[in-house]
Design brief:
globular, 4 helices, alpha+beta
């Protein structure tokens, strides 16, 4: 599922990360299952201490949320979001964060329908350095 959400990442690397993710207390993992207990979606939430370069109190930030394509628009993503919100409230957080690529208008629309407010738009740059 992680490889489907992040197709440009190395699938083996994503799989290798799983054992440490399950013991990381700053990472919340959620699995969405079908009525037959088959995993059909997931969410990863990281407790971040930085927002746009500013140090902040730890807050839950959705790093990834994915639902099987055949089951989208059936409430699965909202169910994952509701579970994230519930855990965040129980742990004393007053907000959650998320981010979306600038060209992912579908995800932007979903976030806005779910009550997220846009905070900032950013373009990240990098410049490769050539050896002298």
């Amino acid at each position: 599922m992680r490889a489907r959400l992040w197709p440009d990442a190395d699938a083996a690397e994503l799989a290798d990360e799983l054992p440490s993710m399950l013991t990381d207390t700053t990472l919340w993992n959620f699995i969405l299952t079908s009525t037959g207990d088959r995993a059909v979606g997931f969410a990863e939430v990281q407790l971040r201490t930085m927002f746009d370069g500013c140090v902040v109190a730890p807050y839950p930030h959705i790093e990834g949320l994915w639902v099987d394509a055949g089951l989208r628009r059936m409430g699965g993503a909202r169910a994952l979001l509701a579970a994230i919100e519930e855990r965040a409230r129980r742990r004393g957080h007053d907000r959650i964060g998320s981010d979306v690529e600038l060209d992912n208008e579908t995800s932007q629309a979903w976030h806005e329908k779910c009550g997220f407010n846009e905070e900032v738009r950013t373009i990240l740059y990098s410049k490769p350095l050539r050896a002298r």
